[in-house]
């Protein structure tokens, strides 16, 4: 199966999960996964949240930022991968002057 993000409508979300600013995202969702191509605008963030029934893998395509991951801070740049396993918490912040562009996969875990 090929997922062509250019054929998926882009949605603009303000204050994603209680964060600040604008997130532009194209999402493919089925019962097993959420697959996202997204742009977090400069100065924007996602809200701090826990992955209770899933995990998240985030590949940074361009831009710079940081994650608050549990009790740590992790700086990210293009080419880095952030992983938030099930049961852990995180938030993403765009620290740069350009969009923080990323590809993310959120697999659901069958309990």
TrEMBL record:
What are the Cupin type-2 domain coordinates in residue numbering?
A: 37-105
Report the GO molecular function annotations: metal ion binding
User: Could you tell me which InterPro entries the record lists for this protein?
Assistant: Cupin_2, GPI/OXD, RmlC-like_jellyroll, RmlC_Cupin_sf
- Cite the entry's keywords alphabetically: Metal-binding
The yes or no answer to whether the keyword Metal-binding is present is yes
Q: Name one Pfam family in it.
A: Cupin_2
Q: Which domain of life is it from?
A: Bacteria
Q: Does the keyword Mitochondrion apply?
A: no
Q: What PANTHER family is this protein classified in?
A: CUPIN TYPE-2 DOMAIN-CONTAINING PROTEIN, OXALATE-BINDING PROTEIN
Question: What is the designated name of this protein?
Answer: Cupin
Q: Which organism is it from?
A: Xylanibacter rarus
